[in-house]
Write the structure tokens for this entry.
Amino acid sequence: MPTTAPHALADVTASDSTLRRFLHGLPGVDAVGLEARAASLGTRSIKTTAKAYAIDLAISMVDLTTLEGADTPGKVRALGAKAVRPDPTDRTTPATAAVCVYPDMVATAKDAVAGSSVKVASVATAFPAGRAALDVKLADVRDAVSAGADEIDMVIDRGAFLAGNYLKVYDEITAVKEASGAARLKVIFETGELSTYDNIRRASWLGMLAGADFIKTSTGKVAVNATPANTLLMLEAVRDFRAQTGVQVGVKPAGGIRTSKDAIKFLVLVNETAGADWLDNHWFRFGASSLLNDLLMQRQKLATGRYSGPDYVTVD
């Protein structure tokens, strides 16, 4: 498709029928082919200096996350300190991209990362289920923004999406985008609940049409979260969206990515699918908690030739 102005697809959101026609007119997903390509790219071998570069890049892309009912200000402050200086013994270790917390912990997180490059992201819109009235969801967003959130991670109304009420989902995303102000908006689909790859492709385009700055796989609160296949599909979507509109949108796989080996596989997916323009934490993130520890252990192994003891990294 030819490159056009960013508003070139505005007419497809004019009504529920035009939006439905557009989303259901997207090419169907070849599930077997998608999974085979994701698996094939996952076999790429990266060693020595390239591996060291990939590990540092992955560290810089982590949204270090704590989203538990038992979160305390002390835990959030410790998480912020770790995000700013992941390895206190090695100042060459890059900071993470962000810390991600609930809205009531944003101010604490903001203080903890003050003076650094680390952003504060806040989940909102009745995370993780998204089952609340729109005015409640918008109040959630405004609370987070007023507390200093740099980024908002919202969840879509999966019930509305699965019922085919696409315009309702679109309108909700645009309202949240407006309420977010200058904060970047990540739109979470909860891909494990969307059932089919076709639905994931439709949700990706719906989120981008509504103004998402990032599209995100999951909340990390269901059985199936980020996978190479669903992330590959979303990377294809952002690549094609930019080709058609000129607008670049980021991708954030979240949940289930725990090892350096896994993270590097995802970076290969990014490079081979969307391209090098997305190999930057402004456009690609990992939603994770335990991943950072393994990245630090592997980084130390590359530097010294041996693994550190169990006390080398903090237990989050």
